[in-house]
Design a protein that fits this description.
With 103 residues, the chain is an alpha+beta fold. The protein has a single domain, classed as Fe-S cluster assembly (FSCA) (GMP Synthetase, Chain A, domain 3), CATH 3.30.300.130. Helix content is 34%, strand content 18%. It has 4 helices and 3 strands. The chain has a 3-stranded mixed β-sheet with strand order 1-2-3. α3 (53-65) links the parallel β2 and β3 (72-77). It is globular. 18% of the residues are buried. The mean pLDDT is 92.
């Protein structure tokens, strides 16, 4: 597995605290860049003022720092483009629909 795939797989292990879906399938991860041991993650939230934002950011940092060769994680919250349900992956849509949530 290449390093970028490993990072995306690690991010896919992080569940949204308010919905039964991981951050990748929910479409919250806008970008990942790696420079040596540093990883920069651009992410968004489904709404401004998300009460779980700090928890999600910390979960991203903790999970990626558990990966070999990663010793720094910088998380940047972005709002452009705004999140919409169109960012959901097919697996994300299936997960939400299985919980009875319309997408």
């Amino acid at each position: 597995m290449n390093p970028d795939d490993r990072i995306w797989a690690a991010l896919a292990e992080i569940q949204d605290p308010e919905m039964p879906i991981n951050l990748v399938d929910l479409g919250l991860i806008y970008g990942v860049r790696r420079d040596g041991g540093r990883v920069d993650v651009d992410l968004t939230f489904t709404a401004m003022g998300c009460p779980a934002a700090d928890f999600v950011i910390e979960d991203v940092r903790e999970r990626l720092l558990a990966e070999p060769d990663i010793d720094e994680v910088r998380v940047r919250v972005v709002w452009d483009p705004p999140w919409t349900a169109a960012r959901l992956t097919e697996a994300g849509r299936d997960a939400l629909e299985s919980w009875g949530l319309a997408v």
